[in-house]
Amino acid sequence: MKEEKGILLESGTGEVEILKFTVNNKFYAINVVKVREILQVGTTSKVPNSTPSIAGITLVRGDVVTLIDLKYVLEKEAYGDIAHKMTLLCEFNQLRVAYLVDEVLGIHRLKWSDIKKPDALIENTLVIGNIQLDDRIYMLLDFEKIVMDINPNTGITLQRMESVEKRDRSKIKLFLADDSSTIRKILLDTLSAAGFVGMRFFNDGQEASDYLMNLVEQKGDRFVEDVHVMITDIEMPQLDGHTLTRRIKEHKILKKLPVIIFSSLITGDLRHKGEAVGADSQMSKPEIGQLVGMIDLLYDKLK
């Protein structure tokens, strides 16, 4: 594959831009849309009684930002002197956080289908995909899980369901696509607590797309007997959520299926991408209460 230098503006194309970097002579990647800036660490302050994964806090144009020691997260060996260390300033899950790395290698555009899911032996790790480039394997990291492992309250929790009306929602049938087994389990637990029963989970967008296409081939317009709302993440190997949404909304029968994009990447800057592919709603993890409210609203419109 050759290096791509243009900016990926169109959504639902099945492509992604990754930022390549190293930590302790190993090769990793992150989705470019999560990275707000690449900078060097300035003055830092240690946080008392914090986990070793947190290197400290620093100021970035007047904002206090937490520094995560990615070497410790991955190797259980902390960086020594972090002054002038390279950092990736990221934004997702409604958080801004910076990650210490060794070296930034550049940006590469590729297809989501080029990103291979880890096999069953290494599931539930911090690696959500493997990318073969430059005769190397780059590991696409689950930055959402890194943050949740440090502080579970930053993720989807039952506590976030406290304001949600608990009632019988067993008639509502949901399809959910998310490549993270951790997030799938959390969604199952939290949505079950809200009264949902009919939930079918898919490991990625391709699985969901294949199932939907088979379903509509068998049932035609009667596919709505099996699903009322599709909920999808954005970042998924094989097929991303934007492309899945576009396939649904451009299908002559499936286009009536409401789609909610539920992702840590939903920000003001990126909302236009979901709008471009026809999503009925977009909301940011970890706001599970808002998700339940939108499911109720879209289901009521179908009746």
Task: Summarize the structure in words.
It is a single chain. The strands form three sheets. A six-stranded mixed beta sheet has the order 3-7-8-6-5-4. The N terminus is likely disordered. The termini are far apart. It is of the alpha/beta class and 303 residues long. Helices cover 24% and strands 32% of the residues.
What coarse outline follows from CA principal-axis ratios?
globular
**In percent, how helical is the residue content?**
10-25%
Distance between the termini: 48 Å
Task: Indicate the low-confidence ranges by residue numbers.
Answer: 1-9
What is this structure, in a nutshell?
Strands 3-7-8-6-5-4 form a 6-stranded mixed β-sheet. A 5-stranded mixed β-sheet has the order 9-1-2-11-10. Helix content is 24%, strand content 32%.
Descriptive key words:
about 300 residues; alpha/beta; 16 strands; globular; 6-stranded mixed sheet
In terms of topology, how is this protein built?
Blueprint (H helix, E strand, L loop, with lengths): L14 E9 L2 E6 L3 E6 L3 E2 L8 E7 L2 E7 H6 L10 E7 L2 E7 L1 E9 L15 E7 L2 E6 L1 H8 L22 E5 L3 H13 L4 E5 L2 H15 L9 E4 L8 H9 L9 E5 L7 H6 L4 E4 L3 H15 L1
Parallel strand pairs: 2-11, 6-8, 12-13, 12-14, 14-15, 15-16
Antiparallel strand pairs: 1-2, 1-9, 3-7, 4-5, 5-6, 7-8, 10-11
Helix pairs in contact: 4-5
